[in-house]
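Weekly modeling sync, notes
Attendees: S.R. (lead), two postdocs, one rotation student

Agenda item 3: backlog of single-chain predictions. S.R. asked that every request posted to the team notebook include the full sequence so nobody has to chase files. The rotation student volunteered to paste the first one in as an example of the format we agreed on. Action items at the bottom.

Example entry:
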Amino acid sequence: MRLALLFSGQGGQTPAHWQQVREGADGELGAALARVLPAFADPLSAPAPEQLATNRIAQPLIFAQQMLLWGRLQSSLPKPICAAGYSLGEMAACSAAGAFGAAEGVALCAERAAAMDGAAPGEHGMLAVLGLDDELVSTLAAENRLAVAIRNAPRHLVVAGPRAGIAAVVPRYEAAGASRLVHLAVRTPSHTALLTGAVAAFKQRLDVLSDRRLAFPVFSAIDASAARMARPALDALARQICTPLDWAACLQAVREMQPDAVLEIGPGNALARLFGELAPEIPVRACDDFRSPDGIVRWLTADS
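Predicted structure, as returned to the notebook:
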């Protein structure tokens, strides 16, 4: 079994994911979460659904949920041949490959979130635009003080920037014939130059981590380059904060590894759907499609 992993980013988190982490995180991981999320330390407290979209809650929460799932699955599955992470998900991909531990990753995600919030105060957001030529999407975005942040697939881009700009560009995309517009549950202009100020501090934090050989290659979401050592993977984590992502190229790189199956770990199933559209010949599922980790293991080991 040649298994590839995809780790989802922000946008699909729900109160159910908060509850999963609440019930499953203990030991060092639970203590790390309690330090960065005050509500986690109080068993009677939980963030409102709209609060789950804030960086300071979403980033450590999603990372912890992903690492809990991977921790439960790892011993029952073959070693992956590669991993990739969508935006925040690249933190989990690096951790799963051994660049840093889960508890340390929670702290890093909290620092990442704080750096991003500090670099771009105010009201920002991200909008997925489907069905329009890339050049038109980019042109209309620039005219409204936005920038292309992610290329998911041909004619499927994500733009980011001030919420006022997003509000202004929506009717223009509609008039141009966009097949779908989706406001993402993210409140920061991720992967744009607006977050340049967040990179140096986060890179300085990552630079103190030890270099080591990764357990499997991690593809950078920036350009699909494969890191087999921790240092280039960590450098990419810092750069991607303010650099557009070519997720389409990343998925193609995973496809070219010829996996027998692909598993998306984290909230939602958007990455599984994107990969399924690109490579319908390769079985792909998301953890959220299953009721328990046992179901995921049964699916992946059914023919072995």
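Discussion: group reviewed the output briefly. Residues 95 and 101 are 6 Å apart (CA to CA).
Action items: rotation student to repeat for the remaining queue; S.R. to check formatting next week.
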